[in-house]
Amino acid sequence: MPTAKPTNIDAQRILAIMDELKEKLTFLSFVSAQVLGGLQGEDGSATVEILGPELMKCFAEQLRLEDLYVMASGEGGYGHNEETEEMREDVKSLQKNTLELCRKMKAVPNVVQELRNFQDRESRPAAMIQFLKTLADMQELTLKRLSTTVEEEKSRQELLEHYKSREAEASARRQQLDRDLAHIRVET
């Protein structure tokens, strides 16, 4: 995570949104049947206690809604012009549950570490992990660009101040030389 943040409020908002997106995508990368099965097994009881019944219910519902979405989209339902009211309701339920699941997962300390124990390294969603890495790279690039803009503006201001001070010094020197010249003319 970037440590130096630009002072520009809009830049900070952009970076905060990207941080939140990465966090939610990380949470969602652990929502799988394998993880749910591990949680429901003998080894998962301690973690289930940490997560709580509401989060577990939301977790199971997310998998059910995702399966429903995949089945309907495979049948030519979603993404086609034949969208029905039932399909819209399913999509709305999935979106609502996804937000609720992320909110509940965020409230649990170390939830990612707890869930990581139930997910094989090979079964992690490669596309999601690659997307997270790409998003992190984009965030770093955005930070550099935003920081560079701020640094460039600061550099321009410093250069302008330098020229102003040199102009003031030159004006003062000119006035002194004009006085000296006037004094010399008076003496001669």
From TrEMBL:
Protein name: Dynein regulatory complex protein 10
Compartment list: Cytoplasm, Cytoskeleton, Flagellum axoneme
The UniProt record lists the keyword Cytoplasm: yes
Alphabetical list of InterPro entries matching this protein: DRC10
Functional summary from the UniProt entry: Component of the nexin-dynein regulatory complex (N-DRC), a key regulator of ciliary/flagellar motility which maintains the alignment and integrity of the distal axoneme and regulates microtubule sliding in motile axonemes.
Domain of life: Eukaryota
Family to which this protein belongs: Belongs to the DRC10 family.
Region (Disordered): 167-188
Key word Zinc-finger present: no
PANTHER family registered for this protein in UniProt: DYNEIN REGULATORY COMPLEX PROTEIN 10, IQ DOMAIN-CONTAINING PROTEIN D
Keyword annotations: Cell projection, Cilium, Cytoplasm, Cytoskeleton, Flagellum
